[in-house]
Structure formats: C-alpha cells, structure tokens
Design brief:
single chain, 107 residues, mainly alpha, 3 helices, YtpI, YtpI-like protein
Length: 107
Amino acid sequence: MTIIVPVIMAITIALYVYNKFKRFRTSGKAIKQWYQTKAMIALGIFILAPGLLFMLPPIWGVVEFIVGLVFSVLGLVYVIYGIKYYRKVLPFAKEESETMHVSEGGQ
C-alpha cells in the first residue's frame, strides 16, 4: 500500500499540471472551465491519497488520524465538486469545440 500512494500522487500531480497548462493554452471559455474541472479532480485525488494512507493501520496516534481525516475530507470535497462541475460544463465544452472545428474547417 505504501508504494501505491506515491505512484497515485505522481500520476495525479502530472495530470494536474497538464490540465493547468492546457487551460492556459486554449481560447474557448467553456473549454478552459472543462480543463479546470479536470485539474480540480486530479488535485482532489492528490490530496485524498496521503489522507487515506494516514488513516490506515497501523495508526500511530490521534494526531495522525485527525490529519488524515482532514486531508481525506478536503480531497473528497475537491473530487465531488469537480465531478459535479465537470458534468455541468461538459455539454458547453463539446458545443464550443464543435463550433471551433466548424469555423476552422470553413476557412
């Protein structure tokens, strides 16, 4: 379990950075929000992973458990709100992407 958490953290931080850079390089407003929600979900998983690791046995003490609980709750909040906002933004991003492809193809 201790090797899985750093791997998850490395993958999610890479996804977070990738989506942040893609957000700054795109021109459409809805597509930028779409990349932002994907980055928020990756950040939530990045925060959630060590929080769960702190909460798993062997528990060293109350302080470690409370820190793990705080990290887990904060990570879950980021993931849940990121998924909700992702579902809200996705149709607008698809429409904007199709509009951009049609306008590029017509020229």
